[in-house]
Amino acid sequence: MQTDAPTRGRGRPPEGVREAILATTLELIAEQGLARLTTRAIARHANVSEASIYYHFADKPALIEGVILDAVLRPLREFAASFPARAAGKSVRDALLDYGLALESFWTRVLPVLSAVQADAELRERFQERINELGLGPHRGVNAISTYLGERQRAGAVRGDVDTRTAAMSFASACFLSAYQRHMLGARTRRKLPSLSSVIGALADLVAVD
Amino acid sequence: MQTDAPTRGRGRPPEGVREAILATTLELIAEQGLARLTTRAIARHANVSEASIYYHFADKPALIEGVILDAVLRPLREFAASFPARAAGKSVRDALLDYGLALESFWTRVLPVLSAVQADAELRERFQERINELGLGPHRGVNAISTYLGERQRAGAVRGDVDTRTAAMSFASACFLSAYQRHMLGARTRRKLPSLSSVIGALADLVAVD
DNA sequence: GTCTATACTTTGATAGAC
DNA sequence: GTCTATCAAAGTATAGAC
What we know:
The structure is a homodimer. By secondary structure, chain A is mostly helical. Chain A has two domains: 1-57, Arc Repressor Mutant, subunit A, CATH 1.10.10; 60-207, Tetracycline Repressor, domain 2, CATH 1.10.357. Helix content of chain A is 72%, strand content 0%. The first copy, chain A, is built from nine helices and no strands. Chain A has helices at residues 17-32, 39-46, 50-56, 60-87, 92-118, 121-134, 138-154, 164-185, 196-207. In chain A, helix 1 (17-32) packs across helix 2 (39-46), helix 5 crosses helix 8 and helix 8 runs antiparallel to helix 9 (196-207). The longest helix of chain A has 28 residues, at 60-87. Chain A is elongated, with a radius of gyration of 21 Å. The relative contact order of chain A is 0.10. At the A-B interface, helix 5, helix 6, helix 7, helix 8 and helix 9 of A face helix 5, helix 6, helix 7, helix 8 and helix 9 of B. The structure holds a DNA duplex.
């Protein structure tokens, strides 16, 4: 029952089709997971035909893999780039708080995609290869914060007897668990873990020079 | 081309069919994920007909849900039951090490299933409901270890100025991150995080009275 | 309670007009 | 570059014999 546009789509500019497919696919993966994701659903939600999907992507796995990798690498780059700025001119405690909350929200963005990867053996294998090639993984975050703590330690702001690598691991993993709980049990669930802020605060008290 | 058993199966006792279906389904979910799991594959690997699946289970979602829930609750019960025994007569350090490694391997068992849950929106919703009803979640582990540390603190084996809840959170989350990295990047991947033992050891040094 | 055979539905992917 | 229409394959689920 379209009254005025018999020849072209219902408002989507033709050149946005590829981007619409990518964005919609990511959205659907995050919302409903990979198990029942169909090309038909992607096409409908993106206001596009299924054929267009196969014009832009070789097949369904190629589309998924592209979306997944991008959905991990993009937030990662943004986050990594923001790190130096976060610490600048702050106390150790404030820097850790700021960094920790950012780390938690990074994981909150990425976890739905990581879970989707685990749902398909082929995808998982390719993803692991790619991540290993790039040398990525949680150790990156641990190393970054460990380096930061080391610097502050030499500057006398962190207690000399603290093992910065262990402290960094505790810190990073608390952020991760916090994000994972929300991911697994849903945002509406009442949080029964100590708040991330309080845990980071307590860790800061342990490592920082008073 | 069966030469000797025209009427009955190739060795599976008829009464084991239901169990075989359950075990095989879990195995396949852990191995290849939920996205491409078919009733045909389950039947083949379990050496059973597809029809038998539908005799024992209402439909595919019902089968999956049963398997999933069992695969989380069973290890959880076993693990929870083993906890008191782990701490008995040990130093704080040894108890934490023992508990931590057990916690890591608990997560290693359960994570593949939790990831599968995230791959299907309907499954995720039912799972979250059930978990919330039962009051489960990572906070259980944190509470248990926090209680343990509190007792040892009153006994003088843990430093009085330690916040046991924060320490427990750090401890539990390190175990979780350790397991998650292996889950996500594969067991063969060279571990680039500090070993869990070393992190737990360092945490124990921080909280235990020398 | 389990099987074989099959009905029905959905899915990924392609052909061809515009 | 995008669409409509269509196909072959794969998927879930059922019927009926034993």
